[in-house]
Amino acid sequence: MTRDAEPKPARVVVADDQTVVREGIVMLLGLLPGIEVVGAAGDGEEAVALVARLAPDVVLMDLRMPRCDGVEATRRIRAEHPGTQVVVLTTFADDESLFPALDAGARGYLTKDAGGDEIVRAVHSVLSGDAGLSPGIQRRLLERLTEPEPRPAAPPEPPDGLTARETEVLLLIAEGLSNPEIARRLHVSTATVKTHINNLFTKTGLKDRAQAVRYAFGKGLVRPPAG
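Request: output the structure for the sequence above.
Response:
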């Protein structure tokens, strides 16, 4: 009677720019069941190169690294080597770190206070098609999903009885477009543009294009350039 073969350990690459931290993670993983460390990288460029050479199952990826940060390295690995999953292992749990990493293709996200058992669970979770997220990260994702979407500001009402088309022509004048350019933008004739301009000048009491530009800024229809 034959015994079932034990499952192969997950082949892991560790990427972290701090030597002490990287060596500590490698040492910890070497003591954990179901994990085989096959390489270690000091930055994102090296991590991408190691993945190309070693084809690991999972990369444990730090985020803040020189040359190529963890987000960009994750994006490249997932695009070029889709058979390798990425679990972020970082000090940072803020939205500016979390969501770009997940958007880049990371399937797991842990902070460096995670214990060995939590790392093992995350590695095997992403290999089985699940997400490998710490409880705190799961809560943040849930909060983000349940946050109400900010309502877009309502566009300002056209002033002085201008029609929507006359307002559109006014905005294009404020952009510095000539009558033929406005006609091409709106797919109408130059004569039609002149008619709209005459109408909006009559309604607003404007005399020329320079006044029209000042009027558009004064009514809040156009924001002055930054700087």
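The longest strand covers residues 35-41.
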